[in-house]
Specification:
Helices cover about 60% and strands about 5% of the residues. By secondary structure, it is mainly alpha-helical. The protein has a two-stranded antiparallel ribbon. The longest helix is centred in the middle third of the chain and has 23 residues.
């Protein structure tokens, strides 16, 4: 564990040395580059789209876990792994699939949310909208 942390620190420092420590911004695609007026505020279309995608993922995951056969298998493995294994389910594969699915969701959120990152100088919650 300690060696992994050391490697992570060395890799982070190496990346900062090679690419620089200042964050680089990337312009959003033209299709979502504008802004929308809601009351006295202007909200970027990109961030509203990010919220819409997040809501769609929540609804989709709820449906997937509650209504699909795969969701039933995942719920069975979580509730009683021994009984699920006794019925022939490969609990290790199910758990690995759930971890992979979580990783896919995390990477997707990182890719879509990179423009909304709070790792910039001068970031405040009010900087999400402009007056």
């Amino acid at each position: 564990m300690l060696a992994t942390l050391g490697v992570a620190y060395i890799a982070g420092d190496l990346f900062s040395t090679v690419f620089g420590a200042e964050p680089r911004s990337v312009d959003p695609p033209r299709a979502v580059a504008g802004s929308v007026s809601l009351g006295d505020y202007q909200y970027p279309v990109y961030r509203l789209g990010f919220i819409a995608v997040g809501l769609a993922v929540v609804v989709g995951l709820f449906w997937f876990v509650e209504r699909s056969r795969v969701g039933a298998v995942v719920r069975a493995v979580v509730a009683d792994p021994g009984m699920a294994a006794a019925t022939g389910l490969r609990t290790g594969m199910v758990r690995a699939g759930v971890v992979v699915g979580g990783g896919v969701l995390a990477v997707t959120a990182g890719v879509l949310g990179h423009r909304s990152s709070a790792h910039r100088r001068g970031w405040t919650p009010r900087s999400w909208c402009t007056r």
